[in-house]
Amino acid sequence: LFLSEIAPTRIRGGLNILFQLNVTIGILFANLVNYGTAKIHPWGWRLSLSLAGIPALLLTLGALFVTDTPNSLIERGRLDEGKAVLKKIRGTDNVEPEFNEIVEASRIAQEVKHPFRNLLQRHNRPQLVIAVLLQVFQQFTGINAIMFYAPVLFNTLGFKTDASLYSAVITGAVNVLSTLVSVYSVDRVGRRMLLLEAGVQMFLSQVAVAVVLGIKVTDHSDDLGHGWAIMVVVMVCTFVASFAWSWGPLGWLIPSETFPLETRSAGQSVTVCINLLFTFVIAQAFLSMLCHLKYAIFAFFSAWVVVMSLFVLFFLPETKNVPIEEMTERVWKQHWFWKRFMDGDNHHIVNGKITANNGASV
């Protein structure tokens, strides 16, 4: 949310995905720490767990030096501070058009007394539905199941304990490098293209893993053999790579840039809540699913990949290079399906002024 509000339109996607890049770097470091502390008996796991306090401390200290966004300052009536911050982050004094748009958007936002209740109104339904479904779909790709339980999964495939942790480090490194692909390409090829390409790649890699495990791993044998085991690791890395440049970062980026100012904070709160809820659900259910479904768990997740790819194809609009305050006019009112929900939206912003649908200034 913070990054979407301060980013220039042309690089909003890439700048926002730097958030996800740092998440993946954190995951990689966590895997490296686990790999190192696994050799310390019997208290290595305590060291691993306690070291998580370091990034928490850094995050808290860093928050003390971060200024509010211009949108937030202006919405709270601190117009001069908002303009000063806008000039600073844009690197120019010529910010009047953008400043006026934010001022007018904040006036609309101040008319909304109950933003969470306002989220349920008809004209906010497209953004809410997409934000919620993106979080559900992100978890049903199976990524957290694979990343959380990579050591368990690789142990099941016949790797020894050290090798399984090492394999988890490999997937973490792939995650970081592939997120860089998204940083570079998201504002060039667009959100939809990345999601659709990744859908094909995730589906094929998961089906390949399911087929190999279905044929080679049975109730009487869990030894894949070296060649097949390497193939499974490669397919898992292929899956992680496609997720890292698509559903991973874009699941956060798209909701943060699509809500109007009056419901943006509330909408992002719902987004995070749904994400953590389904992260919890998948984390709790995965081991039981792995025991009962076995290789079919990858078929289960691949079926969900098909569903979410079809949703993207038909219902997710492209938001590349669209100013964040112009989403309603240029995206939602132009979409073949969602435009029907915009009928009750009687105002929009043109050249920094709110106008009614009949063109009169408000």
From TrEMBL:
Residue spans crossing the bilayer: 17-37, 43-66, 128-152, 164-186, 193-215, 227-248, 269-289, 295-316
PROSITE patterns: MFS, SUGAR_TRANSPORT_1
Subcellular locations according to the entry: Membrane
Residue span(s) of domain Major facilitator superfamily (MFS) profile: 1-320
Coiled coil: none
GO cellular component, one term: membrane
One Pfam family cited in the UniProt record for this chain: Sugar_tr
Keyword hit for Membrane: yes
GO molecular function terms noted in the UniProt entry: monosaccharide transmembrane transporter activity; symporter activity
Membrane topology summary: Multi-pass membrane protein
Keyword Transport listed: yes
UniProt keywords, alphabetically: Membrane, Sugar transport, Symport, Transmembrane, Transmembrane helix, Transport
Family of this protein: Belongs to the major facilitator superfamily. Sugar transporter (TC 2.A.1.1) family.
PANTHER family: IP12678P, SOLUTE CARRIER FAMILY 2, FACILITATED GLUCOSE TRANSPORTER
Protein name (record): Sugar transport protein 13
Organism: Dichanthelium oligosanthes
